[in-house]
Every structure is written in structure tokens, then in C-alpha cells.
Amino acid sequence: MKFFIDDEQTLSKLSSMGNPLEGLDKVMDWEQFRPILENIFRNHQKADALRMIFS
To answer: How many angstroms separate the CA atoms of 45 and 48, rounded?
Structure first.
């Protein structure tokens, strides 16, 4: 799959250039966003189910 190889090469190139997101990842506690994202995802699934009923 060429897509994954390209993605890997892009990430490698960004890292060598000093990707600021890597630094942010070291200091940010991403788990604090999990409840928010799970709630959004749960609501999105409910909306999709309703759309299927009324389709």
C-alpha cells in the first residue's frame, strides 16, 4: 500500500524538520479530552441511527 509508505515518509520528514506537534504531544495530557470526544461520538451515532430510520 503506497499510501502508508507515503504517510510514513511524510511523518519522518516532518520530524526531521522539527514537528511542533511532537513537542505538544510530550506535554499535553490527551486523555482529558476522551470524555468529550466519546460524548460527541455517541451523539453522532444516535443521529446516524435516526437518519437511517427516516430514510
So the answer is: 5
